[in-house]
Amino acid sequence: MSIDKIWVLAEVADGKPITASLELISHAKSLAGTVEAVAYGEETSAIAGTLGEYGATTVHDVGDLGGSLPGAPVADAIAAAIEAGNGPDAILFPATYDGRDIAGRLSAKIDRPVLTNVVGLVAGDGGLITQHAVFGGAQIATARFVGDGPGLFVIRAKSFPAETSGGGQAEVVAAAATESGPTNGAKIVASHVEERTGPKLDEANVVVSGGRGLGEKENYALIEELASLLKGAAGASRAIVDAGWVPYSHQVGQTGKTVKPTVYVACGISGATQHLVGMKNSKNIVAINKDQDAPIFSVADLGIVGDVHKVLPKLIEALKARG
Amino acid sequence: MNVVVCVKQIPDPAAPPSLDPGTNNLIRAGKLILDDSDAYGVEMALQLVDKAGEGEVTLVSMAPNGETSGLRTALAMGAAKAILISDDSLAGTDALGTAKVLAAAIKRADPDLILAATESTDGYTGTTPVQIAEILGLPSVTFAKKVEIDGGSLKVERQTEAGYDEVESPLPALVTVTAGVVEPRYPSFKGIMAAKSKPVETLTIADLGIDAGQVGATGARQEITDVSASEERASGEIVVDEGDAYQRVIQFLEQLKVL
């Protein structure tokens, strides 16, 4: 299978295509002659300009989902478009909550396997070759599909840069209409936005994260205070999210967010492989842990072997004193 | 209210994982335990059945070598019975193949609700549950932080990038639950004893009418061609705190112009 056409799922948030989708469109442009986007919701014509700038020439518009969770209806629409002919050789999905749903449902619907946790994608052997971080990122596995396409790929955020290529407005075409069946039963009845001060976790220049070494829920306040003083975002290891100290939205790691800040400060975090996958590529890593053998020290640029209960308050006090 | 929980039995995550040098697949020999992520699904199911006042929790699992240790743990928590699919042809099966096998087994149990973790701790592909839902023609709600059954309808709080959505769906449906959705109970001694005699039905793919070509490495239609060490970060500086280490941190941040 040679790669002539790639589709990219363009997810929208706050009226704009999400960065992860733009990363995929610009990377797809380096792999295939034709890159097209698939979008859903009310905003498709509004985002056609941006999608075009990054390299998509056409947007297949699934339209307003009427409150349905996107997984089933968008997978149905993509399957119908493939069926109608002129389908792509590969489809790229950002690894978001909805991206994963749509990719999984589409995979079962058209009986094609899907490769997830992709962090690298290159052309080769007449098709596409993927890279995956395994064992906490200590090793990279290279994989590919065997057999007929389209290949389905779920790709982690920040795997590629998002770069404009000076393209004009993408042409919006209505995606094939589909019958709504029982799979489309799940509906959103209300949306709640969590209050957040400071930068978004996956966009912050500085991330301060806390783990089980903090000892108890109340000590997470130290993480929030340090993050605030450094004008950064507060993150968490899976251990303390599981324990209910902080919401899932703070989680950094395999099942949480991938972050690549200028500085990542890991406090009381041992560095379990599934956490490393989410932060290993931060430009600079500072770790504070009282266990000198904690795996986090193998990725830290500056490792402090010490008790977070002693180091953090002093650090916070000194930063406050600087004004 | 009959609930099926998809559970995975995995190599102990504390032990270093290894790949088969021939296929580059994860080696699943040796003792397998209940994936921690699935304890939340089992607990959630037990609580929902409890609230409904009737029904039972059935476990469904695909594992090599007729492995049941992980299942006994979940049975000890209170699940009523288990269906295990074990078959040599399943070696090297991918997520979609696994979904086909589990879906066929779940169909036999005919549940009102199917629960699963968002992803497994060892493979972390994260697609198998929604693939199962699609194969069974059911709606799915993933990343549930709260699950309720109200008047025969499913009500879920679903994690989103911005916060959470309230989602409703008719039953039957499939839900994946996040860690922390409930506090899983520890099996009691009585539960552990009772688990020994709870029924575990073991099936082969032939029992499910599935062809070997649909599963295993052939059915997966994908291959890992190489595994190599990734670029290592140069080792960093280690400072043992004797009271002043915080100053080195401040210096470091200044050098990076973060301060």
Structure overview:
The complex is a heterodimer of chains A (323) and B (259). Helices cover 27% and strands 28% of the residues of chain A. Chain A is α/β, with parallel strands linked by helices and 323 residues long. In chain A, the strands form 3 sheets. A 9-stranded mixed β-sheet of chain A has the order 9-8-7-10-6-1-4-5-11, sandwiched between helices. In chain A, helix 3 packs across helix 4 and helix 5 (220-229) packs parallel to helix 8. The longest helix of chain A is centred in the last third of the chain and has 15 residues, at 308-322. The radius of gyration of chain A is 21 Å and the shape is elongated. In chain A, 56% of the residues are buried. In chain B, helix 2 crosses helix 5 (189-195) and helix 3 crosses helix 4. Chain B has helices at residues 36-52, 69-77, 95-109, 128-136, 189-195, 216-220, 245-255; strands at 3-6, 9-11, 32-34, 57-62, 81-85, 113-117, 140-150, 153-159, 163-170, 173-177, 200-203, 222-229, 237-240. Chain B is α/β, with parallel strands linked by helices and 259 residues long. Chains A and B meet through helix 3, helix 4, strand 7, strand 8 and strand 9 of A and helix 3, helix 4, strand 7, strand 9 and strand 12 of B.
Characteristics:
heterodimer; A: about 325 residues; alpha/beta; Rossmann fold; nine-stranded mixed beta sheet; 8 helices; 17 strands; elongated; B: about 260 residues; 7 helices; 13 strands; about 30% strand; globular
Layout: helices, strands, pairs:
The complex is a heterodimer of chains A (323) and B (259).
Chain A: E1 5-10, E2 12-13, E3 16-17, H1 19-29, E4 34-39, H2 44-54, E5 58-61, H3 71-83, E6 90-94, H4 97-110, E7 114-124, E8 127-134, E9 139-145, E10 151-155, E11 171-174, E12 187-193, E13 206-210, H5 220-229, E14 233-236, H6 238-242, E15 263-267, H7 273-279, E16 284-289, E17 302-305, H8 308-322
Parallel strand pairs in A: 1-4, 1-6, 4-5, 5-11, 6-10, 7-10, 13-14, 13-15, 15-16, 16-17
Antiparallel strand pairs in A: 2-3, 7-8, 8-9
Chain B: E1 3-6, E2 9-11, E3 32-34, H1 36-52, E4 57-62, H2 69-77, E5 81-85, H3 95-109, E6 113-117, H4 128-136, E7 140-150, E8 153-159, E9 163-170, E10 173-177, H5 189-195, E11 200-203, H6 216-220, E12 222-229, E13 237-240, H7 245-255
